[in-house]
Design a protein that fits this description.
By secondary structure, the protein is of the alpha/beta class. The chain has helices at about 15-25, 35-40, 70-75, 80-85, 95-105, 165-175, 245-255; strands at about 5-10, 30-35, 50-55, 90-95, 120, 130-135, 150-155, 160-165, 180-185, 205-210, 215. A nine-stranded mixed β-sheet has the order 2-1-3-4-11-10-9-6-7. The chain has a two-stranded antiparallel ribbon with strand order 5-8. Strand 10 and strand 11 (about 215) form a beta hairpin. It is globular and about 50 Å long. The termini are close together.
Length: about 260
Amino acid sequence: MAKPRVLILRAPGANCDLETEFAFNQAGAVAERVHVNRLREEPHRLRRYQILAIPGGFTYGDDVAAGKLLAVQLAHFLRDALHEFRSQEKLILGICNGFQVLLKAGLIVPPDEDGPIATLTHNDIGRFVDRWVYLKVQSDLSPFLQGIDLLYLPVAHGEGKFLCREPWLLQGLEQTGQLVLRYVDAQGRPGPFPINPNGSQGDVAGLCDITGRVLGLMPHPERHLFHTQHPRWTRTDWKEEGDGMRLFRNAVDYFA
């Protein structure tokens, strides 16, 4: 059976594209990094792939807001190609900065007549946060998260606080199953910092679109593929495979 092909979208300031490419290749896909300028020149290139991944980093230096400039490019120059891609039941993944991009481009939660429904903004603690967190899977809507209950992954961001325009909008996302990941402790219980590392409304760590095939999350699954990637790997009895690998394997298995 042919391996699914993955386009890893690069942009100036992205710094997790190699790790994301490696993760998909380890999971059994064939991944290729493509610069956003090349994709703008040839939007039809997307038709060659089954998965689109936008990795973490600081695209365009996050000069306007985290992920905003790349989101504008996607919304204005690649809108038709991306909607065609999604309509063909293919998968889209945004990690950290990629989540910020997908959300601000309207690819996870489209804006309504009053504007954007949600955003990702500055952490409550007022600074960059870099730590390991637990995530509880709240919904089985996303193919990326099938069969997963709890994940242990690192976060590294300055603007990861999820915030809805109105509280009832968050309730709507939960009711539709789009609120797929929440920050919790090791026992699966929500709590304040450091359990919720950024102050996200509703402890939201990840969202998917209404189909489940577009997923964005702030933590980095590509940074926990092997037990040796954890800073305490020599002092703890870890599983050989890190929690993040399950997400990438699910994406590949979706096309089996």
